[in-house]
User: Fold this.
Amino acid sequence: MEKMPKPPELEPVAATDECEGNDWRDCLPLLTGRLASLREIEPTDAPTLVSLLTTPEVSRFLSQPPSTVEEFRRFVEWAVAERTAGRYACFVIVPHEARQPVGLIHVRELEPRMATAEWGFAIGSRYWGAGYFMDAARQVVDFSFGRLGVHRLEARAALQNGRCNNALQKIGAVKEAVLRRALFRDGEYLDQALWTIVDEDWQRARSAWEIHVH
Ligand SMILES: CC(C)(COP(=O)(O)OP(=O)(O)OC[C@H]1O[C@@H](n2cnc3c(N)ncnc32)[C@H](O)[C@@H]1OP(=O)(O)O)[C@@H](O)C(=O)NCCC(=O)NCCS
Assistant:
């Protein structure tokens, strides 16, 4: 049988980078990986991200994720204001064959001028194990050291969060410490691992990564 063409609303749109060459504080660039692109979070992402990221398995170890579409929209407004102030960058992960995001990945300042920053990430559980984390993480780590001016990138993961700890190890982060009783979730304090990447680690690792120059 002849293959029916897809209705236009289901066709993925080729993403264009209107921010290329700009200061990241004015506009986050589009980062293009092998499987997905990363673009700045927008208010229209709120319904999709709320449905993907508020499920029990995804939110279990996250500290206070926005839980309604309205809260998520306010979070996006805050994210854009913080990016303009040079303290925060939040990307959504959009697979090349899709229009809607499957998750987000963000970097926030801990020390002035982003010298030390913390990153975090969450992907809808139906997309776990598909390679989106590694693909997106490489792009964002490279952007952080290459464009944001980060020298040390920290991540915290509850010790029980097997997927997250394993994912951080795969990207080349070093487990520096255990932060005892550092995360309060569901009525109990959980220990967290502190995983770090410093600029020399990034320099060593990136030669093996598929990074498109941006
Ligand atoms: C963390 C997250 C983004 C990683 O994405 P992902 O697609 O699951 O990551 P990957 O599948 O590439 O890597 C996870 C690794 O953990 C392994 N893993 C799965 N379950 C595990 C468990 N219970 N214990 C230890 N490792 C586990 C996987 O096998 C995989 O390793 P492999 O590729 O060597 O087989 C995703 O799981 C997520 O969004 N989790 C919920 C939100 C969250 O916890 N965010 C992080 C807060 S620090």
About this structure: Strands lie at 31-32, 36-40, 88-95, 103-109, 116-123, 152-158, 174-185, 188-198. The radius of gyration is 17 Å. The chain has one domain: 24-206.
